[in-house]
């Protein structure tokens, strides 16, 4: 059974999972190394639990601790309860959603496991902004793509900001990392998917003209926020497509482009 612990000291060592959450560089190292991630807010915490992620600990204000009682009541997990000011002192920010849970990570599946049975996947190269990663996952889930593959340097989908922006869809969308990049795209192609590179290059074909075969079996590859896809990745693609733009705008933010492109591929 969960045990509630009143906490009043931000330096309490029992709260270590929740400290320095605004130190991005530190948390990017700590969380994967220690096998944990942070879920913020009741909705996201519930989705993490439903997806089978084990809960390590909860830090919440009194009201939100009570709201999560149905989740924590039947498991052996500490629930640390403190004031809003205490939560802010521990985490480094105002916890507007009132509750945080430290969750244990699960082993990532292999690329082959993620591709098994998948018809449409998004592949992202060097996207390091956690907000964009979370938004891409939300579009993938909402529009009906099957999975996400990440290049080695992409941001962690389980980082707190990614999880929050995705509204917990990072827990339901299968994903894996391609250790060999861009050579790993050969694995994607071998799974029967057309490798389709999204680029603002005026020489690329319009996204709307993508043939039905590529729509039905598609690996949509998207690049980093600044430079887009690298030359080796563009060279490795089967097709290059672009979203037609107006008013002299050359491209969309990568998260917005993901939403537009995924919708066009599925429903266009």
Overview of this protein structure:
With 268 residues, the protein is of the alpha/beta class. The chain is built from 12 helices and 12 strands. The strands form 2 sheets. Strands 8-7-6-11-9-12-10 form a 7-stranded parallel sheet. Helix 8 links the parallel strand 7 and strand 8. The termini are far apart. The model has no long low-confidence stretch (mean pLDDT 94).
Based on the model shown, name its key terms:
single chain, 268 residues, alpha/beta, 60s Ribosomal Protein L30, Chain: A, Alpha/beta knot, 2 domains, five-stranded mixed sheet, elongated
Identify low-pLDDT runs.
Answer: none
**Which structural class matches the secondary elements?**
alpha/beta
Order of helices and strands: EHEHEHHEHEHEHEHEHEEHEHEH
CATH level 1 name of the largest domain: Alpha Beta
Counting DSSP H or I runs of 4 or more residues, the number of helices is 12
- Give a short account of the largest sheet: 7 strands, parallel
Concise overview:
By secondary structure, this protein is α/β, with parallel strands linked by helices. 35% of the residues lie in helices and 20% in strands.
Describe the SSE topology.
Layout: E1 3-6, H1 24-34, E2 36-40, H2 42-50, E3 55-60, H3 62-67, H4 69-72, E4 78-81, H5 84-91, E5 99-104, H6 111-115, E6 120-124, H7 130-143, E7 147-150, H8 160-166, E8 175-177, H9 185-190, E9 194-198, E10 205-206, H10 212-216, E11 218-222, H11 231-236, E12 239-242, H12 254-267
Parallel strand pairs: 1-4, 3-4, 6-7, 6-11, 7-8, 9-11, 9-12, 10-12
Antiparallel strand pairs: 2-5, 3-5
Helix pairs in contact: 7-8, 7-12
């Amino acid at each position: 059974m969960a045990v509630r612990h009143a906490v009043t000291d931000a330096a309490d060592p029992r709260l270590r999972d929740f400290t320095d959450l605004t130190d991005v560089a530190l948390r990017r190292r700590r969380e994967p190394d220690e096998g944990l991630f942070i879920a913020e807010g009741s909705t996201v915490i519930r989705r993490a639990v439903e997806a089978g992620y084990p809960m390590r600990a909860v830090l919440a204000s009194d009201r939100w601790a009570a709201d999560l009682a149905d989740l924590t009541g039947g498991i052996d997990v500490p629930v640390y309860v403190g004031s809003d000011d205490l939560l802010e002192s521990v985490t480094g920010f105002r916890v507007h959603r009132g509750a945080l849970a430290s969750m244990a990570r699960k082993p990532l599946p292999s690329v082959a496991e993620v591709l098994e049975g998948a018809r449409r996947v998004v592949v992202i190269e060097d996207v390091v902004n956690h907000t964009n990663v979370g938004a891409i996952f939300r579009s993938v889930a909402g529009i009906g793509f099957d999975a996400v593959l990440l290049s080695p340097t992409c941001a962690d989908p389980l980082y707190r900001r990614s999880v929050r922006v995705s509204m917990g869809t990072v827990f339901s969308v299968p994903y894996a990392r391609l250790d060999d990049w861009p050579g790993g795209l050969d694995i994607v192609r071998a799974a029967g998917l057309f490798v389709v590179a999204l680029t603002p290059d005026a020489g690329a074909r319009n996204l709307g003209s993508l043939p039905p075969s590529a729509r039905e079996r598609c690996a949509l590859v998207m690049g980093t926020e600044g430079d887009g896809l690298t030359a080796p990745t563009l060279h490795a693609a089967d097709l290059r497509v672009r979203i037609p733009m107006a008013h002299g705008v050359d491209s969309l933010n990568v998260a917005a482009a993901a939403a537009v492109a995924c919708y066009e591929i599925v429903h266009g």
